[in-house]
UniProtKB/TrEMBL annotation:
Record organism: Cytobacillus firmus
Annotated keywords: Plasmid
Protein name: Uncharacterized protein
Length: 290
C-alpha cells in the first residue's frame, strides 16, 4: 500500500520501527520515502485490475455459499478451538454462525453442489475453479471456514483460518537489493543481493535476527516466522476462478440473539455500529456488547 504522494508505503514483508497495522491478520510496517526514493502514483495511469471472472451478485453468492455450508461439517479439533478459553464461543454461537471445516475432498463437494443447485458452472463464485479443464473444485487449505454476512444477512464470502501456516522470511534491509525467501519448508532460506545468491542455509523459526554480511558489509537482517493464518476464500489466478475482492466482503456481526431472528434479505437498524477487524473477534464482541 502506498500513499498518494509517494512519501510512504506499508509493507507486510520488510520491517521498520513503526507498525502500520500491528494487530491485523496481515501485519504491516510503515516506510517513509524521501527524495529519489519517493514513488508518486498517477492514478490516471493505473488500470483497474480484474483477476478472473467478476463476482456474481450477492444473492447468487448467498445461494451457493449457503448450500456449501449445508454440505460441510465442523471437525472436532475446530470445534474445540472455537469453544476454547482463547475464543470463548458458546455452542449456540458456533451453531448459529455456521462455522465449518474446509473439506478434505473439495472436488466432491463442488460436484454435489453443482448437481444439487442444478447449475452448469461456478464462474463468478470466489473459491471455485476448474481443475485440469475437467471438473470444478474449491481452492483452500485445511482450516476453519468463517462466513461473511452482509447487511442483509446474505453470505457473500469466507475467510478461512488455516491449521498449519507455512513459514515465511522477514527482511530488514540495510542496503537496497537484499532479498530472501524460503526455498524448502520449514526453514531452508535463500538470500540474494542484487540478484546474486549469497547464502543458502537453515534458519530456525524464532524472533532472533540473522545478520547478513556480504563483501565486508552488512546488507541487512533476516528471520523466519510463521506466515499468515487467515486468508480469503479466493480462486484468483486459477482457471475460471474468481477473486474475493472488487469489493472485498464486509462482515456484519450482530449478537447471537439477533442473528437467530434475523431474516435473510432484511436490513437491520442500529443506533451504534462498531468498526473492528477479525470476524471471530467480532462474533465474541457483538455478544459482549449486546
Amino acid at each position: 500500500m502506498a500513499h498518494v504522494d509517494g512519501s510512504a508505503v506499508a509493507c507486510i514483508r520488510t520491517e521498520s520501527d513503526t507498525y502500520f497495522s500491528k494487530y491485523s491478520a496481515l501485519p504491516s510496517y510503515l516506510h517513509l520515502l524521501k527524495g529519489d526514493n519517493k514513488r508518486k502514483i498517477n492514478k490516471e495511469e493505473i488500470e483497474e485490475i480484474h483477476v478472473g471472472h467478476p463476482k456474481q451478485k450477492d444473492k447468487v453468492l448467498n445461494t451457493v455459499y449457503s448450500a456449501l455450508i449445508e454440505c460441510l461439517e465442523l471437525d472436532d479439533v475446530h470445534y474445540k478451538h472455537l469453544t476454547s478459553p482463547s475464543r470463548q464461543l458458546a455452542d449456540k454461537q458456533v451453531m448459529l454462525r455456521q462455522y465449518r471445516s474446509f473439506p478434505d475432498k473439495p472436488w466432491e463437494v463442488a460436484r454435489l453442489l453443482k448437481e444439487g443447485l442444478e447449475i452448469k458452472h461456478f464462474k463468478g463464485i470466489p473459491g471455485f475453479y476448474l481443475q485440469e479443464e475437467k471438473y470444478w473444485t474449491i481452492a483452500g487449505s485445511k482450516g476453519i471456514l468463517i462466513p461473511f454476512r452482509n447487511h442483509y444477512n446474505e453470505i457473500v464470502g469466507f475467510q478461512y483460518r488455516i491449521d498449519n501456516p507455512q513459514n515465511v522470511v522477514e527482511v530488514k534491509v540495510n542496503r537496497p537489493g537484499l532479498k530472501a525467501r524460503i526455498i524448502e519448508q520449514p526453514d531452508l532460506v535463500q538470500v540474494s543481493f542484487d540478484g546474486e545468491i549469497i547464502l543458502e542455509e537453515e534458519i530456525k523459526s524464532n524472533k532472533t535476527w540473522t545478520t547478513i554480511v556480504h563483501e565486508n558489509g552488512v546488507k541487512g537482517w533476516v528471520r523466519v516466522v510463521k506466515g499468515n493464518r487467515y486468508f480469503w476464500l479466493s480462486s484468483a489466478k486459477k482457471p475460471e476462478g474468481t477473486g474475493s475482492g472488487n469489493p472485498a466482503p464486509i462482515h456484519v456481526a450482530v449478537p447471537t440473539s439477533k442473528l437467530k431472528e434475523w431474516k435473510e434479505g432484511v436490513s437491520l437498524k442500529a443506533r451504534t455500529v462498531w468498526l473492528s477487524e477479525g470476524p471471530l473477534k467480532c462474533a465474541k464482541r457483538s455478544t459482549i456488547t449486546a
